[in-house]
């Protein structure tokens, strides 16, 4: 493990299970923290960067890729022309490492399910 984890005594699981847990917690917090934020073409990159930077300071995150689907906001400029971020607009990939284990967690909209699914990709 790269750093001593004082919380490790509370977790009765393998490094892989802990990495998966951390990925799930972080994806869930992103979803519930940012859904509803106002977006238009002027601030979409700022919001993507804010989401990425906020998750990157959390323990065990090695990398984060944040994409917001721009087709939902095309042509939305002006004082009253914005949308609010929804789950179907987000595509988030997190690389989480704990101990000797690394996992890749993902949240993206699955059309067939009509649902922004959070899952373990690797």
What does this structure look like?
- The protein has 122 residues and is α+β, with helices and mostly antiparallel strands.
- The protein has one domain (13-120): 2-Layer Sandwich (Pantoate--beta-alanine Ligase, Chain: A,domain 2), CATH 3.30.1300.20.
- It is 27% helix and 30% strand.
- The chain has helices spanning 15-34, 44-56; strands at 38-39, 61-68, 83-84, 90-98, 101-110, 115-120.
- The chain has a four-stranded antiparallel β-sheet with strand order 2-4-5-6.
- A hairpin with a 2-residue loop joins strand 4 (90-98) and strand 5 (101-110).
- The longest helix has 20 residues, at 15-34.
Write a brief structural summary.
This protein is an alpha+beta fold and 122 residues long. The protein has 2 helices and 6 strands. It has a single domain (13-120), classed as 7,8-dihydroneopterin aldolase (MptD) (Pantoate--beta-alanine Ligase, Chain: A,domain 2, 2-Layer Sandwich).
